[in-house]
């Protein structure tokens, strides 16, 4: 059974008139209720992260700035990134959810988790908020998997339409966290060229697949399948984490790479295949972008139902 992490508290991060708004998660939760997904999963709420787990990735000054900004009533951290009085608390809970999901998935063979959290994380840098992101949830998850569980090969797959520059930057010279990103190019935030492959101990542990707007859906899917298969063979991950953004959907108002909802089933299958091949299925996904409320809800439902169906198939074949 899939572990589903979500909490109404994630809707308390207020952003005003902004694409990354509380209505995103409200729309997803409504869809998941209609399709009875909550009954099909183990549902968990959120817990706040211990500051030490955040500080594995972020600087003390960044953590302090997030706390102080909320305490002073909120404000703007960069042209796109807004905070409200509750935002620091909500961001701590998004990070804590990431840590808790990793503990769950690494605690027992075959577990998989989906984390429907806000704010998103993959643009957040070690010492700076950026692009709607306060703490880098997936980077905190990867760092926790290493520090608390002793893993030395974690694979992050990022299919958000924007390059996951924060995640890439945090692990660029790392060597133990492998980062794969498929994204629209050229596009915000401007990083993610094929030549960015890591440095020092991390040389070769970053793989970027930049794709131009106008690519066909079948070309997109085969490009991701081929590049991810090669990269996963090198990474041989003990845990797979996914930055699951749904803003490559053709209906997305700020992203789009022309994808349809069912393409997220294919992406989910590819990532699940990697997890099955290398690490007994251990997979945690994190909601990143996706700004058309209907397309987002349908796409998250498609991602989750694909994992649920595959999990049931495996359970049925294992019991025969
Ligand atoms: Zn995005």
Q: Based on DSSP secondary structure assignment, what is the total number of beta strands?
A: 10
- CATH architect. name: 3-Layer(aba) Sandwich
Radius of gyration: 18 Å
Q: Give the tally of structural domains.
A: 1
Spatial order of the strands forming the largest sheet: 2-1-5-10-9-6-7-8
Largest sheet: 8 strands, parallel
CATH superfamily: Histone deacetylase domain
Tell me about this structure.
There is one protein chain. Strands 2-1-5-10-9-6-7-8 form an eight-stranded parallel sheet, with helices on both faces. It has a two-stranded antiparallel ribbon with strand order 3-4. The longest helix has 26 residues. The chain has a single domain, classed as 3-Layer(aba) Sandwich (Arginase, Chain A), CATH 3.40.800.20. Helix 4 packs across helix 5. It has 320 residues and is α/β, with parallel strands linked by helices. The two termini are 18 Å apart. The chain has nine helices and ten strands. The chain is 41% helix and 15% strand. Zinc ion binds next to loops.
List the topology elements.
Blueprint: E1 3-5, H1 22-34, E2 42-44, H2 51-55, H3 60-71, E3 75-78, E4 81-83, H4 87-107, E5 112-115, H5 137-149, E6 154-158, H6 165-170, E7 177-184, E8 206-211, H7 217-235, E9 239-244, H8 263-279, E10 283-287, H9 293-318
Parallel strand pairs: 1-2, 1-5, 5-10, 6-7, 6-9, 7-8, 9-10
Antiparallel strand pairs: 3-4
Helix pairs in contact: 1-9, 4-5, 7-8, 8-9
The protein binds zinc ion (ZN).
Residues 160-162, 245, 247, 255, 288-289 line the site of zinc ion.
